[in-house]
Amino acid sequence: MPFATYTVEIDFAGRTGSAAVYMDTGETTTTYAGAGDFTSAQAYAASASDTFGGDYDDVTRDATAIEVQRGRDDIAGPYRPGQARLTLQRVTDDPAATGAGGRELYNPASTTSPLSQFYTGSDPSPVSPGIRPLRPLRITMTTGGTSRVLFYGFVTSWRYDRATGSAEVIARDVIWKLSKTLPVTTQDPGETTASAIGKLLSWAGWTAEADRDLTPTIQGVTAPAGRTLPSGSFVNDGTERSGFDLLDDLLAASRGLTYCAGSVFVHEDYACRSLRKTADVTLADVALTYDPGFEVE
Amino acid sequence: MPSLRTRSVVVTPTLDATATATTSDELTFGTNVTGGAATSTTFIDAQADADALAAYLVATSATDQPIVRIVLDNDSDSRLAVIRDLELNQRIVATESVTGATLDGFVEQVTHKITNGGLRHECEIVVGARTRMVGIYSPDSGDQYELATYAADSPSEPPPYATYGF
């Protein structure tokens, strides 16, 4: 059975930003940051600026299980942010080992892990505190000589189990990040769904053009930009509605969809399905599982 | 500013011309009898647009659409390449070898599960069928779960956005 190779990386030194970005993660008591603070704290958001080159950033050898999911459960419902779930465990023959080779490497409360804010050891290259919320996480798959990023997002949950010495890590993509912004928006003449979404992304710091594709090319045809918004409708004062609320509202009107293909935020107008005149993927010899049923309350 | 508020899933079972709608038929078809998130938007300011959106939602959601799951794994290099490049909203045409049933639909959800140190990669795709699979759940067959021949429209034709009812 052939198999691919994978690279799992966490940028333990990247994107520290201001404390305000930690918001509701429990690290600070700050709830919603001021819009300006959040924007400036997220100025590093362009993925191209990430290096994943630190001493501990490549966690591939310790990733015992990986799950990546994106999409929606109900074909009439909204698309959820993409999510990755990792199990990290530093396996060692020496249970007493500490530092980079110790089983507690992924324990955020350890005094022996160079990734912990409580580190007291003498490892020559500590990244303390490396284990923090919103660290970038990237999962890359390589097969047939071609690599593709399966997931790019930010760590939102880190739970360490002392009994097993493993950490369960959850990361979410930039669509989740939009829910943590309170954009102040103004509307330009001829504003479309796509251009409005671009403004929301910029507010969340997702500014690099290489990381967004708002009018993708579908089977050789450039996709529409969505609806032209009614005059005065795309105005938000930054006090109540989040970037995700606005995105959801925009897509409700246009019936489009958004998702993250690796680090690239993609918007597809509803007409994109009509542009797919031929199959993108043809599968033979597969099992089709259909689960009909109902539920009455 | 006018706004639209409706249900994105509207259950209106569509039976074939000879069938008689009964309560049990509704239950059989109605996987979303009571469900459906409300659709509300501030980005529509004309009644005609709201009407058009409502008509569109009814057209696309009035009938129960089959949700089909396909699980792929790393059993060949070509399958691994498919898994690597798979993305939401792609159009998939899949054929089951034993029954010959064919599905034509769009990817609604993708889940990768990589275990055993990367030796196993399982990829589950949830596909919303763009066309019905004739026989997979046909009232003509007494509501039996039956895989039969595929009689949907040609994959080479532009897909109509509205789906077909049973």
Give your account of this protein's structure.
The complex is a heterodimer of chains A (297) and B (166). With 297 residues, chain A is α+β, with helices and mostly antiparallel strands. Chain A is built from five helices and 15 strands. In chain A, the strands form four sheets. A six-stranded antiparallel sheet of chain A has the order 1-4-5-6-3-2. In chain A, helix 3 packs antiparallel against helix 4. Chain B is of the alpha+beta class. Chain B contains three helices and six strands, in the order βαβαβαβββ. In chain B, the strands form two sheets. In chain B, strands 3-6-5-4 form a four-stranded antiparallel sheet, with helices on one face. Chain B has a two-stranded antiparallel ribbon with strand order 1-2. In chain B, a hairpin with a 4-residue loop joins strand 5 and strand 6. The radius of gyration of chain B is 19 Å and the shape is elongated. At the A-B interface, strand 2, strand 5, helix 4, strand 12 and helix 5 of A face strand 2, helix 2, strand 3, helix 3 and strand 4 of B. Strand 2 of chain A pairs antiparallel with strand 5 of chain B.
What is this structure's SSE topology?
The complex is a heterodimer of chains A (297) and B (166).
Chain A: E1 5-10, H1 35-41, E2 63-71, E3 80-89, E4 136-143, E5 146-161, E6 166-172, H2 174-178, E7 184-185, H3 193-203, E8 212-213, E9 217-218, E10 221-222, E11 236-237, H4 243-254, E12 257-261, E13 264-268, H5 272-275, E14 281-284, E15 288-290
Parallel strand pairs in A: 8-13
Antiparallel strand pairs in A: 1-4, 2-3, 3-6, 4-5, 5-6, 7-11, 9-10, 12-13
Helix pairs in contact in A: 3-4
Chain B: E1 4-7, H1 23-29, E2 38-41, H2 47-61, E3 67-73, H3 77-85, E4 91-95, E5 102-115, E6 120-129
Antiparallel strand pairs in B: 1-2, 3-6, 4-5, 5-6
